[in-house]
Amino acid sequence: MSVSGACAPGPSNITSVRPSPSSLPAVTAPTLRLVLLLGVLVALGPFTIDMYLPALPVIGPDLGSTPAAVQLTLTGTLVGVAVGQLVIGPLSDALGRRRPLVAGVAVHVVASLLCVVAPSVTVLGVLRGFQGFGAAAASVIGMAVVRDLFSGRAAAALFSRLMLVIGASPVLAPTVGGEVLRWNTWRGVFAVLAVLGTAVVVAAARALPETLPPHRRRDVGVTRSVRTYAALLRDRAFAGLALVGGLVMAAVFGYVSGSTFVFQDQYGLSQQEFALVFGSGAVALIGATQLTARLLRRWAPRQILVAGLAIGTAAGALLVAVTAIGLGGLPAVLVLLWAVLAGQGLIFPTIPALAMARYGATAGSAAALLGAAQMGVAAMAAPVVGLLGTDALAMSVTVAGAMLAGGCVLAVIVGPRRLADLDAAAEAAEAAEATEAPTKVLTAS
C-alpha cells in the first residue's frame, strides 16, 4: 500500500518498473460471490436513472408540464448522485463501507415511495434528487470496495466485469419500465424501484464484507473532507481524468435524455419498441467492456483509454453528419450510436483504474470525486438536448461535442507523460500489494 496509499504524490515518487502481464499475481481474481454482490450494488444507479425513461413522454401531460421540464427530473437525479457521492465517499473512509451503504440506500427507498405520490414535476424532480443521493451510496462504495481489494490491471479487469452489469442494466431497466407501464401508470415504476432498493439493502446488510478495517479508516469532518478533495483536485492527472469521465458520461446522458423523444416522437416507436431499441445499444457497451478485460493482457490501460476516445469521437462526428442530412434513417443512427457506446465501453473501466491508482488510503473519497464529476457534468447534458430541440440532431451534437471535449481534456490537461506515469503507478501498486492479495480476497469471499 506504500505507493497507492500516498496522498497526491508527484510522478518522481512512482516506481517505473513495468511487470509483464504474465508476471502479474494470479491471486487477485475476485470471487464469484463478490462480483455478484458488487454487480447488485452498481445496478441500482442505472435502474434508478433508466427505468422511467419509457414514461417520460406521458409524465409531462399527466402533471401538466413540458418535455423540457420533465427532462430536468433526470438532471435532478444526476445532481443527487453527484452530491451523494461527495458526501458518502468520505463517510465510507471514516466509518467503513457497510453502514453508509445501508443508510444511503434506505434514503433511496423512502424517496422512491414518495415519488409514487408526487403531485408535480417540481416535486418529482426534488424527490428524484434524493433518489440519486441514495443510489450514490451503492455506486461509490462499490468502486471503493474494488480499490480496497485490487489495483492496477486487476482493478481494471474487475471494473470491466462490473461494466457488464452497468451495460446490461439499460437493457433491463427500460424494458422493465415498459412492462410496468402495460399494467400500471408511470407511478408504478417508482414503486418497483422502492422494491429494488429494499432488496439491495437486504443483500448489503447480509452479505457485504467490511473491506476497510479500522486501522485504515480516517477521521471524518467537513474540513478534512475538503482538504482531501482539494488534494485530489491538485493532482492534475486525477482532475483531468475525472473531467474526461464526466464528459464521456455527459455524452451517455445526452443520448439517454434525448433518445426517448427521438425514438418515440421522431421515429414513431412504441414504448416497448423504444425499450428494446434503447437496450440493444447496451450490447455494444457490454461487448467493449468485456473486450477491455482481454485487451488488458496485451495493452496498458492508457492505450485502451485513448483508443476508446478516438472511436467514440469519430463515430459521434459521423452521427452529427448523418442526422444533419437525414441519411440512412433510424438504422444509420443506431449503428453509429452503438459505435459511440463501444468506445465508451473501453473508456469507463480504465479511467477509475488509472485515476485511483495512487489513492488506496482515500479510495472512498477518490471514487466519490470521480463519480461526482461524472454525474455533475452529465447533469448538464440532459437540458442541453431539450434546449436544442429534443430531435436526433440535438442529441447527436450533444453526444459528439462531449466526446470531442473529453479527448481534448485528455490531451491537454492530462497529457501523454502524466498518463504514462499513472500506468506505472497502477502497476507498481499492483506489484506492491501482491503479498496482501491472498488475505484481501479471503476476507472478501
Give a quick summary of the entry:
The protein contains 17 helices and no strands.
What attributes characterize this protein structure?
445 residues; globular; 78% helix; disordered C terminus; mainly alpha; disordered N terminus; 17 helices; single chain; Growth Hormone, Chain: A
Report what the structure shows.
The protein has 445 residues and is an all-alpha fold. It has a single domain (31-218, 232-431), classed as MFS general substrate transporter like domains (Growth Hormone, Chain: A), CATH 1.20.1250. It is 78% helix and 0% strand. The chain has helices at 32-50, 56-63, 67-95, 98-115, 121-149, 152-183, 186-207, 222-234, 236-266, 271-295, 301-325, 329-347, 350-355, 363-378, 381-388, 392-432, 437-444. α1 (32-50) packs antiparallel against α5 (121-149) and α6 packs antiparallel against α7. Residues 1-29 and 437-445 have low confidence and may be disordered.
> Any idea of the CATH class?
Mainly Alpha
Instruction: Report the sheet with the most strands, covering strand number, pairing sense and barrel closure.
Output: none
* Assembly category: single chain
Q: Determine the mean pLDDT.
A: 79
Proportion of residues in β-strands: under 5%
The parts where pLDDT drops under 50 for at least 5 residues are 1-29, 437-445
Strand element count? 0
At the fold tier of CATH, the topology name is Growth Hormone, Chain: A
Q: Share of helix among residues?
A: over 70%
Query: What is the global morphology?
Result: globular
First and last CA, distance: 21 Å
The H/E string reads HHHHHHHHHHHHHHHHH
Q: How many whole angstroms does the radius of gyration measure? A: 21 Å
**If helices are DSSP runs of H or I spanning 4 or more residues, what is the number of helices?**
17
Q: How many distinct folded domains?
A: 1
**Broad structural category:** mainly alpha
- The CATH homologous superfamily is called MFS general substrate transporter like domains
**In CATH terms, what is the architecture?**
Up-down Bundle
